[in-house]
Amino acid sequence: MPRSPNTRAAKAGSVTLATVARRAGVSPQTVSNALNARELLRPENLERVRRAVDELGYRPHRAAQTLRTRSSKLIGYGIRPTAPGTSTPVMDRFLHALSQTADEAGYRILLFTSPPGSAGLDGYEELLDLHSVDGFVLSGTDRGDQRQAWLEKRGVPFVGFGRMWSGRQIGDWVDVDGASGTDAAVEHLVGLGHRRIAFLGWPRGSGVGDDPAMGWQRAMRRHSLPVRGKRAQSVDDIASAQAAVGPLLDAGATAVIAASDMLALGCYHALRERRAVPGTDVAVVGFDDSPTAVLLSPGLSTVAQPLEAVGRECVRLLLARMSEIGAPPEHVLLEPSLVVRDSASASDD
Amino acid sequence: MPRSPNTRAAKAGSVTLATVARRAGVSPQTVSNALNARELLRPENLERVRRAVDELGYRPHRAAQTLRTRSSKLIGYGIRPTAPGTSTPVMDRFLHALSQTADEAGYRILLFTSPPGSAGLDGYEELLDLHSVDGFVLSGTDRGDQRQAWLEKRGVPFVGFGRMWSGRQIGDWVDVDGASGTDAAVEHLVGLGHRRIAFLGWPRGSGVGDDPAMGWQRAMRRHSLPVRGKRAQSVDDIASAQAAVGPLLDAGATAVIAASDMLALGCYHALRERRAVPGTDVAVVGFDDSPTAVLLSPGLSTVAQPLEAVGRECVRLLLARMSEIGAPPEHVLLEPSLVVRDSASASDD
DNA sequence: CAGCAGTTTTGGAACGCTCCAATGAACTCG
DNA sequence: CGAGTTCATTGGAGCGTTCCAAAACTGCTG
Asked: Would you tell me which of A259, A320, B38, B232 could form a disulfide with A201, CB atoms 3.0–4.6 Å apart?
């Protein structure tokens, strides 16, 4: 009568409910109850089953449970196809939070490299085991993203990380209030005595890109500061940003808020080119708190997204959606936080 | 007779093999064959089944398949619990490659936040649906890692990313030949005319850390260059690295090879502190090709790990292991590549 | 101590699929 | 033209679990 489960576990897979039942001298159904509805059992029997489970190293067979209960306890997560160069340091923390939170609710995360609804999949591949999953988390949802519509049509519960900027609003989403982040950045800079605060963003038109610009603008207006001629745009690339920020610096900006750390780095370069020192001569604030931000000198002040919280909220919303399919869509907008480093910490106007 | 699957797909989940069989006028088994062993069917019947599948929007129920075939077509991947500060830009690309390759073989990746075998899980939680997975990929395996032993004892196929540096060798692994990377770095620097090439590594003792040092050493010896007094060590932190590299610079090193980009960045700082310019006055080579490397100025030359290849190999080895359990352990050592940027591109000794 | 309500346990069926062995159809050949 | 051979299809069983309804045990009352 070995107390160690490991000796048996070697030939595992064959330990089933029935095995445990025989050992404990009860029916399979009772064992099932012991596991899923312990309040039904007489304490004495429950203990007996517990012991049998222990001794045999029994573990329920997920597939069988899934088949019977019609719930896989799996959440799909669609990874965005990342280009070799473009790193998304974002995903790491987010995914971790996602997995962790899901775990706590008894769910696991299943990775989908090409998320359902993405193009290029013919009818057969596309439909492959979608229903091995109870719900879906989409990330990097953007304009013209068809995944939401695709999932909704099929009645699969889902939550997006990223709001829908255009078109019909469908489904739940969690997002970070970028405007609030740049707004806070302006507040911070104003507090340091800055007046001529410029903004370097992405080309207009994308919702994601316009959002931070909005925050900058409204904060500037609130302080009755001028925004005209204080805004430039560039693609997310150092050289372009460096070029784009030039006119702003020429016009005498004492601070620049950028829509990404990459753009902010372009500012660094532009400043150095002019023999000016970031943080000392001109304040710079980035966006994203990428791993690089802390490594720069001076350290880059930047708006950090609460990725862990986003992950948690995604799971929370998804679980809610799964429990009541028909409920009205829910949206969660989370506040980012300003991480202050040397690139914007002391007044020097 | 709607040609569109979508109209029916709304009430999906109820479309089963039997449904398709009725529609196509064959037996359920034949439909199954059409899907899994098409060569058994007469072309005419196969077409008939195909059409029925199409019209009904049928998709096989993974759980049922799993239950019957005893193969979940799932590969577990243990995420390392990442501390909030510590970013692992590595994981992103690797995970993507993993998922992609698995996909192509008809497998999916299932995330495990706390990988089996990690401490802190009591007997019940720990065993939770391990056998919902056909095999396991472990990453960041290190000294004293008990996960391998744990999995082996339970007869679960697995592959580690990272070799086992100590103890009994168990299981397959894929790793990057760090020594070869630093060796190549030395070659490159020697080619540029450098002679006093120093090495900045992590504290001795960890296999992972000693590996790059080894490559540096052997390459130096090959060129009859001195290694004495040319080696320093530091924890993976800018300030420490900056301090640690001091003596090497004082001793007149014209080039420094670092065991990580973080350490290399410490060199940058130390050099600037002495009013020297990285890449111009002293060459610096890092390790990892982190996203930051390309963003620095000068761009950091660094040893890049072939993460995509590692991901692919992991899956390949795992599939091989799963197909023949008893085969002797297989190990794959991949060559990293030197990415040359401005921090080490022109001789200036 | 039969009767009844309440609690605890149980047998049987079903989830959707694939394995296995057996049937039927078509085809070859002595 | 019946026997052997191959090829295509089929029925039945079973994977391990939970649902459902019925059965067996309590304990309490009249």
From this structure: A259
A6-20, B98-112, B139-153 — which one is most confidently predicted on average? Answer: B98-112
> Is residue B341's pLDDT more than 70?
yes
C-beta atoms of B9 and A154 within 8 A: yes
The β-bridge partners of A111 are A77, B109
A148 vs A217 pLDDT, higher one: A217
Residues 223-242 of B with CB under 8 A from A: 238
Closest of B296, B235, B303, B233 to residue B268, by C-alpha: B296
Please check whether residue B263 is in contact with residue B286, taking contact to mean a CB–CB distance below 8 angstroms: yes
A112 touches B108 (CB < 8 A): yes
Sheet holding A255-258: strands in order across?
A231-233, A197-201, A255-258, A283-287, A301-304, A337-339
Residues of B in contact with A114 (CB under 8 A): 103
Three-state DSSP class for B302?
A: strand
Within 8 A by CB and 6+ apart from A183, the residues are A215, A216, A218, A219
Asked whether the beta carbons of A105 and A315 are under 8 A apart, the reply is yes
- DSSP string over A102-130: HHHTT-EEEEESS-TT-SS--HHHHTTTG
Tell me whether A118 touches chain B (CB under 8 Å). Answer: no
User: Which one of A60, A99, A130 has the shortest CB-CB distance to B59?
Assistant: A130
Mutation target for A interface from B113, B124, B260: give the one with most A CBs within 10 A.
Answer: B113
Does the pLDDT at position A342 exceed 50?
yes
Cβ distance A92 to B99 less than 8 Å, yes or no, reads no
pLDDT value for B163: 82
With contact defined as beta carbons under 8 Å apart, do B53 and B15 qualify? no
Residue in this structure with the two tokens 């930051």, named with its chain if needed:
B292
Per-residue pLDDT tens over the stretch A184-208: 999 999 999 999 999 999 888 766 6
Q: Residue B308 class from Cβ within 10 Å (0-12 exposed, 13-18 middle, 19+ buried)?
A: middle
How far apart are the C-alpha atoms of A79 and A98, rounded to whole Å?
13
A244-253 pLDDT, tens digit per residue, is 999 999 999 9
pLDDT band for position A80 (50/70/90)? low
Interface mutation target, options A58, A59, A70, A238, chain B, most CBs of B under 10 Å: A59
The nearest CA of chain A is from the CA of B333 a distance in Å of 22
**Numbers of helices and strands, H then E, in chain A:** 14, 12
Per-residue pLDDT band for B170 (boundaries 50, 70, 90) equals: confident
Element (H, E) at A250: helix A238-250
- Determine the pLDDT at residue A166: 66
**Residue B20: pLDDT over 60:** yes
